[in-house]
From TrEMBL:
Source organism: Gordonia alkaliphila
Protein name: Flavin reductase family protein
InterPro entries, per the entry: Flavin_Rdtase-like_dom, NADH-dep_flavin_reductase, Split_barrel_FMN-bd
Domain Flavin reductase like per the UniProt entry, residue ranges: 21-172
Coiled coil: none
A Pfam family per the record: Flavin_Reduct
Family the UniProt entry places it in: Belongs to the non-flavoprotein flavin reductase family.
Annotated keywords: Oxidoreductase
């Protein structure tokens, strides 16, 4: 046994890579829309959405956030061309809902009463933040696409604890110390 870290393993080991990625906590969001016109695969008024745990802030000016979407995603192509998208940051008590929105597309909105804007942006109630976004660009990134979303308007409540994804499970945050001036 040594006092230092364990030996490095080759990045080609997918299990080791997934374990390393799971060491970094991330927020969990829903990216959603309601169709406003009939499409070839769905009628107007269809709710479409997905959960993403690869959400991150990107820029204050312009106000950008991002999500990473697998190339095989069947949902992102249905969201991509929306005039506006709703991004809902899940609260700590919404783990079951996040799992549901990551599940089978036909059951993602079962027992959910989302809030829709006339533009089609769709929000999940009870979240810690809601961001009204437009798609601002896509960047290929390995087996994913990084989607940049520009925030048009928002509401947030920092007193509502967020849902956190860490080590392949949902977790809650714990305050360690009060922030100065809080």
């Amino acid at each position: 046994m040594t006092d230092g870290p364990s030996p490095l393993v080759p990045v080609g080991d997918p299990g080791a890579l997934k374990r390393a990625y799971s060491c970094f906590p991330s927020g969990v969001v829903a990216v959603c829309r309601r169709t406003t016109v009939d499409g070839p695969d769905f009628p107007a008024g269809t709710d479409i959405g997905m959960a993403a745990s690869s959400f991150t802030t990107v820029s204050l000016d312009p106000p950008l956030v991002s999500v990473a979407v697998r190339h095989e995603s069947a949902t992102w192509p249905l969201l991509r061309d929306a005039d506006e998208l709703g991004v809902s940051v899940f609260a700590e008590h919404q783990g079951d809902l996040a799992r549901q929105l990551a599940g089978h597309p036909d059951r993602r909105f079962a027992r959910v009463r989302p809030v829709a804007l006339s533009s089609g942006a769709l929000f999940i109630p009870g979240g810690t933040a809601h961001l009204l976004c437009t798609a601002a660009g896509e960047l290929p990134a390995g087996d994913h696409t990084v989607v940049l979303l520009e925030i048009q308007s928002l509401r947030s409540d920092p007193t509502v604890e967020p849902l956190v994804f860490h080590a392949s499970t949902f977790r809650a945050l714990e305050a360690r110390r009060a922030l100065d001036g809080a």
